Model the fold of this input.
Amino acid sequence: MSGQLTVKQLEEKANDIRRDIITMLEAAGSGHSAGPLDLTDILTALYFDIMNIDPKRPDWPDRDVFFLSNGHTVPVQYATMAERGYFPVEELKTLRKLGSRLQGHPERTKLPGLENTSGPLGSGLSQAAGYAYSLQYLDHALHRFVYAVTGDGELNEGNIWEAAMFAGKYRLSQLTVFIDRNNIQIDGTTEDVMPLEDLRGKWEAFGWHVQEIDGHNIASIIDAASMARAITNKPSVIIAHTIPGKGVDFMEYDYHWHGGAPGVGVPNHEQAKLALKKLRTLNGRITPGDIE
Amino acid sequence: MTYHLNPHLYSDDVKQEPTRAGFGRGLKAAGGADKNIVALCADLTDSTQMSIFKAAFPERFIEMGIAEQNLVTVASGLARAGKIPFTSSYAAFSPGRNWEQIRTTIALNDQPVKIIGSHAGVSVGPDGATHQMLEDIALMRVMPNMIVIAPGDSIEAEKATLAIAANGKPSYLRLAREKTPIFSTENAPFEIGKAYVLREGHDISLLGTGTMTYELLVAAKLLEAEGIQAEVVHVPTIKPLDDETILASVQKTGRVLTAEEAQWGDRRTVEREATNATVPGRYV
Done:
């Protein structure tokens, strides 16, 4: 569906999705805030521009596929899928509720459109690599592409590097992975908890094509995905530099907003009200009347 | 249905073969019947007998290296793409090392990945405690959606391989390294979820799974010489358990003894489930 929305329209869509996320998290009363907000621009670009998908036919055999490896950020995927038309936006309010299809971590068997079940970190990249292997070597479906998102703290997991070796060995060129490089994890900054740098050098050494971008610049995200598809002899990783809590200034850069309970990690009613106002006014840069 | 036991069962030169050999033949046959079957191995292709499939269908074999977590999670992705992946390693490593990945990406995700754990049980002997996998049955039978099978001999292992290739479910197949006597025949029945009475008796029920069933058949013959009529029930499918067949036997005999190459705690659990409080039996 490339090109149906302008970059400006995509940015507005991302803003809608961030507002959905705040509303969902407040209603749920638990979960994760920073990751979903900082991944919003990437998922908006994927679902509204980059991927060849049809929300009315989630199992369409010619679709591109998306694997979320850091399952705790799934509110952004639910919100993006709802805005894209996979299911009613109204259903987002059931996040984390008993019986809801929208559990705190994604369950493929419950919600059409999800490609995997994830939560425990480190295995989504392998699942994406398995799918990409099938497309390249077994199905010879060179027109289809596999996208994955991992966290940066998630790169502490050994399973990730097993997958990195595997995809490098088999030159899985239809696989593109976005790393959400927001520099935080639960116990602090990534470089304090378990240093990841030289991150570019690590992936290059494993045989990957590496790009680094501003993960909030939608035009850059779309361009990087195009470049990744053009690389036909290696898997691609896009290190997307992001701001945790992006879009809500009092959450930005603060690892305490990774996740938790109302007031500490997820917004309580007052914080949600303020966050929605921040999003509506782009942190005070415009007055609400300009966009209502 | 009458169970067709090997007529040479009690002879000194009863044919012996490891269960993994039956798996190797079964996987090749399954691969010939269904082109969606793919095979992944973590650097133990000959040991697990996946080499037979690899020789027949090299384009559908994937070498994974010594990386059991990636082994099963890549298989999960292949399954999402419509394949039926068989993964093999030693049971101590898979499901020993990668249990959580199996739970999340295969069991909860309900993907038809087949986990083949070879060299299970104490019968791997000289390799020592690290490789004598006794916990795999307990680990796998508690997972949602998972089928768990420990075939009794190589002929049954071949049948079980073909059965899980077609069952559409996450499945665990437990195999042994060493040769063991073949007690079944090509005509013997095998169906996932069924237990089989191999020898009738009224004094005690001997329940066996995996290659221990042969030992129970030998025990029953020895007991017969002492005037005890033991009933031998072979339980190749551990999950789902065939309660009906097991309970009917225990209700008849009133006594149970089980034999399996597994941890005590696990055996107790299976016994309790199989012979729950409504049965007037007692353990011996």
In short: Residues 51 and 64 of chain A are 6 Å apart (CA to CA). Residues 7-290 of chain A form a domain with the Rossmann fold fold (CATH 3.40.50.970). The first helix of chain A runs from residue 7 to 28. Chain A has a mean pLDDT of 95.
